[in-house]
Amino acid sequence: MQEIAINDLNGFRYLPGYFDRASQQELLDDVRSVVSQAPLYQPVMPKTGKPYSVKMSNCGPLGWVSDINGYRYQQQHPDTKTPWPDIPSRLTSLWETLAPDAPPAEACLINFYKAKARMGLHQDRDERTFNAPVVSVSLGDTATFRIGGLSRKDPTKSFRLQSGDVVVLGGDARLAFHGIDRVLAGTSTLLKNGGRINLTLRRVNEAE
Ligand code: SIN
Ligand code: FE2
């Protein structure tokens, strides 16, 4: 497995080409099955109600949601009010491989980016524990990913995430600022109509 050093934050891992094309296709089929049960929906920002440029869904016992009242994890889809589908086994296996010391992932957020979508610099900090890493999979069009330090003011670096790449934010990098500057339309043929899917697996609660 190829691994490329991007910064010196201990626990940050960039694993380009982790999934080959056949595995990407299988993951895409898994995502399609999840969103047929838990449709992508349009989240909005707390307070302002401004829509995100990405659409979201989740699988797992918990899902991350954002609405006018704030960010939180909840057991039900905000529109259908039904429990999120299970995390597909290919993704639980990925978690077991890359987070071997962590308890099972509880949430897998699905972000869908169309060509103009982006994600501002942020920390993943709505979980109750930061002991487990965040494991992230990219599918479809290439995106420019930006990673900084533990303070918003720290210098950042950007690099391209391609379909099949995996990133791990663990250890000292668990609370690193990160975001997506842009999606490069037409860079992948995985999604027939283009766009990018990002899957992020997370542990929300301390181990029981
Ligand atoms: C996120 O930080 O929630 C998404 C990151 C990505 O799309 O790669
Ligand atoms: Fe994030």
Helical percentage: 10-25%
Q: Quick one: CATH superfamily? A: Alpha-ketoglutarate-dependent dioxygenase AlkB-like
- Mean pLDDT across all residues, rounded? 96
Structural class by sheet pairing and helices: alpha+beta
Give the count of helical stretches.
2
For the sheet with most strands, the description reads: 6 strands, antiparallel
List segments where confidence is low: pLDDT < 50 over at least 5 consecutive residues: none
Number of domains: 1
Q: Tally of extended strands?
A: 12
Detailed description of the structure:
The protein has 208 residues and is an alpha+beta fold. The chain has one domain: Jelly Rolls, CATH 2.60.120.590. It is built from 2 helices and 12 strands. The chain has helices spanning 21-37, 89-98, and strands at 12-15, 54-59, 63-67, 70-74, 107-113, 119-122, 134-140, 143-147, 157-161, 166-169, 178-183, 196-202. A 6-stranded antiparallel sheet has the order 1-10-7-12-5-2, covered by helices on one side. It has a 4-stranded antiparallel sheet with strand order 6-11-8-9, with no helix packed on it. A two-stranded antiparallel sheet has the order 3-4. The radius of gyration is 16 Å and the shape is globular. The structure holds succinic acid and fe (ii) ion. Succinic acid binds at residues 111, 119, 136, 138, 145, 161, 178, 180, 198, 200.
How would you summarize this macromolecular structure in one to three sentences?
The protein has 208 residues and is an alpha+beta fold.
